[in-house]
Amino acid sequence: MQPIFIRPLTESERAHIEAGLRSCSAFVLRRCQILLASARGTRAIAIAQHLGCDDQTVRNVIKGFNEQGLDVLKKTSCRPHRLRTSIPDENLPALRDLLHRSPRDFGIQRNLWSLPLAAQMCFSQGLVAAPTTGASVRRALKRLGVSWKRAKHWITSVRRVGAYEISV
């Protein structure tokens, strides 16, 4: 693997990075240490060992500096900008219809739906192309304007009374 280093620093960049060594933020301090070590020609693995962090972290900082400049010293959110939705909007009415039916209609020996069971049934009924999670079902219900806790009140369940099944 070819070693990765930061691009040559301008005088103002070097001054800004050296000032970051006195920062009270551990995030900024660590990144400044990484950048200055890379500017001296130290390889990513050696920097990681010296600072006690992962070598991929060092490579990410170096790559970020080469692309963004000093903006790499600003802490940003790691949260994804948009969650993938595994249940398409056009299948939301089918999900609602599925949950209004009893799991027993699908050969499952349960009276009530659980999120993982609903996710499994979404895949088996073709509402999603790949297996999904209960969290995806919860997000889909939220897009319908219903929380899972609220949905439990309108989900059909079947109760056995003696030898008879009664839909509630």
Write the layout of secondary structure elements.
Elements: H1 11-20, H2 26-39, H3 44-51, H4 55-68, H5 92-99, H6 115-124, H7 134-143, H8 148-154, E1 158-161, E2 164-167
Antiparallel strand pairs: 1-2
Quick structural overview:
This is Transposase. This protein has 168 residues and is mostly helical.
Walkthrough of the structure:
This is Transposase. There is one protein chain. By secondary structure, the chain is mainly α. It has two domains: 11-73, no CATH class; 89-167, no CATH class. It is 48% helix and 5% strand. The protein has helices spanning 11-20, 26-39, 44-51, 55-68, 92-99, 115-124, 134-143, 148-154, and strands at residues 158-161, 164-167. The chain has a two-stranded antiparallel ribbon with strand order 1-2. α2 runs antiparallel to α3 (44-51), α2 (26-39) crosses α4 (55-68) and α6 (115-124) crosses α7 (134-143). The radius of gyration is 27 Å and the shape is elongated. The N and C termini lie far apart (64 Å).
Task: Summarize this structure as a short list of keywords or feature phrases.
single chain, 168 residues, mainly alpha, 2 domains, two-stranded antiparallel sheet, elongated, disordered C terminus, Homeodomain-like_sf, Transposase
